[in-house]
Design goal:
Keywords: Transcription, Transcription regulation. 44% of the residues lie in helices and 17% in strands. Strands 1, 2, 3 and 4 form a four-stranded antiparallel sheet that branches. It is elongated. α3 runs antiparallel to α4 and α3 (90-99) crosses α5. It has helices at 30-44, 74-83, 90-99, 105-111, 116-136; strands at 2-11, 18-22, 26-27, 51-58. The protein folds into two domains: 2-58, no CATH class; 74-136, Arc Repressor Mutant, subunit A. The longest helix is centred in the last third of the chain and has 21 residues, at 116-136. The chain has 143 residues and is α+β, with helices and mostly antiparallel strands.
Length: 143
């Protein structure tokens, strides 16, 4: 898996102060790649244009990754969350990063400042709903 990071520096013309921003390393899904490319194109329109760098690296191999990383579309994920009446919480957003974006659970929990246990609980509920749906023979987008 490839991970991406965008870093940019903007110098304000009026007083010369600098604004520096760095993204964390994030998984390289087509949606993420498109988002970062759009972000870079919008940054390039600023006057003066900021210095912008898009870095790519191979993600470090994990010892044990859940088999369902990145297996849901965003629409499927939100359908399941709505059907389960899950509230929008950091742990639910972290579960989306795991199941849709393919991010490792530990990293997703850390990035969204939620506990690993809260993320595990959200993943468990969503996985149970998917398994029940599969047993009933329903397609994943019709929970």
């Amino acid at each position: 898996m490839t991970e991406l990071r965008v870093s940019w520096t903007y110098t304000f013309a009026d007083d010369g102060t600098k604004l520096v921003a760095h993204s964390n390393w994030i998984s390289s899904t087509p949606v993420t790649q498109a988002y970062l490319e759009t972000l870079i194109s919008q940054l390039a329109k600023m006057e003066p244009a900021p210095d912008c760098v898009l870095e790519k690296r191979e993600a470090p191999a994990s010892r044990s990754l859940p088999p369902d990383l990145g297996t849901l579309t965003s629409a499927e994920f939100w359908t399941v969350a709505e059907d389960l009446h899950l509230r929008p919480t950091p742990s639910l957003a972290a579960a989306r990063l795991v199941l849709v974006e393919g991010m490792r659970p530990t990293k997703a929990a850390r990035q969204l400042d939620t506990s690993p246990q809260a993320l595990t609980n959200a993943l468990r509920k969503i996985r149970a709903a998917r398994a029940a749906s599969a047993r009933r023979g329903k397609r994943p987008d019709h929970f």
